[in-house]
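Q: What structure does this chain adopt?
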Amino acid sequence: MKYNYQILGEERIYRGFFKVDKYRLNIEYFAGGESGEIIRECLGKGGYVASALAYDPKKRQIILIEQFRIGAMVAGINPWQLELVAGFVETGETAESTIKRELAEEIGAQEAKITRICEYFGSPGGSAGRIVLFFAEVDSDKIAEFTGLHEEGEDIKVHKFSYEEVFASINNPQNPHCRIDNANTLMAVQYFYMYLQDGKISN
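A:
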């Protein structure tokens, strides 16, 4: 198989907070032959989101933010989700400059030592966007408790958890003290645990 495909047509079908394009495609089958016309929708044309797991090695704390998420609400789950600091990489920005800006805006951290970890698709079945993951070493005594731009619909509470609380949460999703229920945060915590065990970050 040569992994061939053809784009037969493309149309922007929605313009809002997200932009959605509809594609008519013809793809090569693994076992030979072609699909003929199939339809797929995709959010956006690509772009990046910079995200960071913020931590304080001196106090052995992980900092997560809590905010309302429509996807969780529609799924019938508690819509207030614990997440990483994150934001879209705007034109003219790098992922590094974006995450420093977001750390200041979302947790009030004016200074942070950042380490780039990896880059990946968040949901390639329906989105062209990629995520750049960082660790951000911060001083947890110099962060805010409440942030977010209300005029943009943001309302954020900043939480400090011990390493142990967070690690226990990913082993016990029902843990009421630190409920992590989204893939990006779960993956970042697992990376953090591995780095800690391997001595790649301060213990």
